[in-house]
Structures are given as structure tokens and as C-alpha cells.
């Protein structure tokens, strides 16, 4: 079957291409899943007010299991990686002894559910930047994996958030007002239409009534017509 589109012959992708693509992506997917993975979750950044305490999340995932997994957190300070903490995790069940090299840092993941998250107490503006969670599993030929979590530190007096809130609030308020206006308008329109219809009916009835009075003959008509008028 030939593919025609607007009179131009479109080159087709044969079924063999699709199959190759499918196999390729399956292999890629399988390879990708097999390696060690460090994850900071779906949202890899956090905006927090100075002085607050924040959780820097990180979990590891390994399909073949771990043995003496090395993990570390480091902070990118002026372009150089400063080690924040590190440890070896013997197995998925063990609770590691973590060495901490930076102040106000606490290891709270405790390797529960492959959790290697840390807590950063009383953050300052110097804590803002890229935090890297790194892992290496000897069981997987020392394959390295790392992921970055970005911390944004803001002054609580910042107006940007408030402005945004106001914008959102007014947008929502505006939306509601618009909706109400629309509904009022709709109701008003319906009301006017109903009134017009009523008037039309009245007009019709009146004219027919006039008709009746003028004619003064068709008594049966005169009796039946006023009935809808009183409705
Ligand atoms: C945050 O920083 C601002 C500006 O430097 C300062 O005035 C404020 O006290 C700080 N807040 C906390 C909780 O440290
Ligand atoms: C990074 O830069 C800031 C200001 O530029 C400085 O105060 C700080 O000491 C620097 N840190 C390192 C590790 O060089
Ligand atoms: C954080 O700040 C509070 C209040 O200023 C203080 O009591 C606490 O010891 C600080 N924690 C750390 C880990 O520095
Ligand atoms: C990791 O552990 C901390 C502290 O128990 C918890 O708050 C956090 O939700 C955990 N993260 C995940 C992904 O389980
Ligand atoms: C993993 O990283 C370390 C340095 O941190 C390096 O020596 C090693 O060769 C890397 N391994 C792989 C498999 O890339």
C-alpha cells in the first residue's frame, strides 16, 4: 500500500524499522534499569527561607541488590565539590555509620527503604546551590551514579512570592468574578428572553383578545384563549 499525502509520496518507515526501534529501546531500558540509580524524587529543587531546616532527599535503587555501597553527598562551593558526608552501606538492611564533614548536617535517611536523605539545619544563603547525591555499587562493577538537588534560599521578606500569590489570588478571584458576571449576565439574558417571550405571548393573547372583542362572535375562542394568559 502506498502512502499518499496531498499528492506527494511520503517515505514510509518499514515494519522492520519499528521492530529495531522497539528492541533497541527495550535493551536500552533494560540496561538503564540494571544500573545503580540515585534519585532525589520528582522535584529536584527546593526553595526555602533562610534560617529554616530542610530535607535534602535521596534514595538509591539497584535491581541486583547492593553490597558495600559507597554513597556521599557533596556541595558545589564556588565550583569545587566539597564533601558533606559519606559512608559505606553494607547491605540494604544495615544502618550505616555516616561521617559528616559539614556543620548543621544530619543523616536522617538511616538506609530505611534505601533512603540516604540528609537534613540541613538552620540554612544560610551560603547553603544555596547544587547538592550532589552520589553512589557506587561494587556489585555492579563499580558503576557510578549521581544526581543533583538544588537548594534555593530566599529572604522571608521577598516580595516575589507575595506578588505571585496576589497574582494567583487575583487571577482566581478574577476568574470567579468573571464566572459570576457571566452567570448573572446569562441569568439576566434568560430573564429578558423570558420577559420578551411573556410579552410576546401576552401580545399574541391580547391581539387574539382584541380579535375576539372586535369580532365578538366566536365565544368558544374567547373562553379558551385567556386561560394561558393567567398562567
Ligand atoms: C534571613 O536573612 C535576612 C536578611 O539577611 C535576615 O534579616 C533574617 O533575620 C534572616 N532570617 C533568619 C530566620 O535567619
Ligand atoms: C566561596 O566564595 C565565597 C564568596 O565569594 C567565599 O566567602 C567562600 O569562602 C568561598 N568558598 C570556598 C570554599 O572557596
Ligand atoms: C538551629 O537554630 C536553633 C535556634 O537558633 C538552635 O537552637 C539550634 O541549635 C540550631 N541547630 C543547629 C544544628 O545548628
Ligand atoms: C527519607 O527519610 C526521611 C526521614 O525519615 C523522610 O522524611 C523522607 O520522606 C524519606 N524519603 C523517602 C523518599 O522515603
Ligand atoms: C566512578 O568514580 C570514581 C571516582 O569517584 C572513578 O575512580 C571510577 O573509575 C568511576 N567508575 C566508573 C565505572 O565510571
Automatic annotation (TrEMBL):
UniProt cross-references to PROSITE patterns, sorted A to Z: IG_LIKE
Molecular function GO terms recorded: sodium channel regulator activity; transmembrane transporter binding
Biased composition (Basic and acidic residues): 222-231
Subcellular location: Membrane
UniProt entry keywords in alphabetical sequence: Disulfide bond, Glycoprotein, Immunoglobulin domain, Membrane, Signal, Transmembrane, Transmembrane helix
Keyword Glycoprotein belongs to the record: yes
Biological-process GO terms, alphabetical: cardiac muscle cell action potential involved in contraction; regulation of ventricular cardiac muscle cell membrane repolarization
Membrane topology value: Single-pass type I membrane protein
GO cellular component labels: voltage-gated sodium channel complex
Ranges where the record places region Disordered: 211-231
Classification via PANTHER family: MYELIN P0 RELATED, SODIUM CHANNEL SUBUNIT BETA-4
Annotated protein name in UniProt: Ig-like domain-containing protein
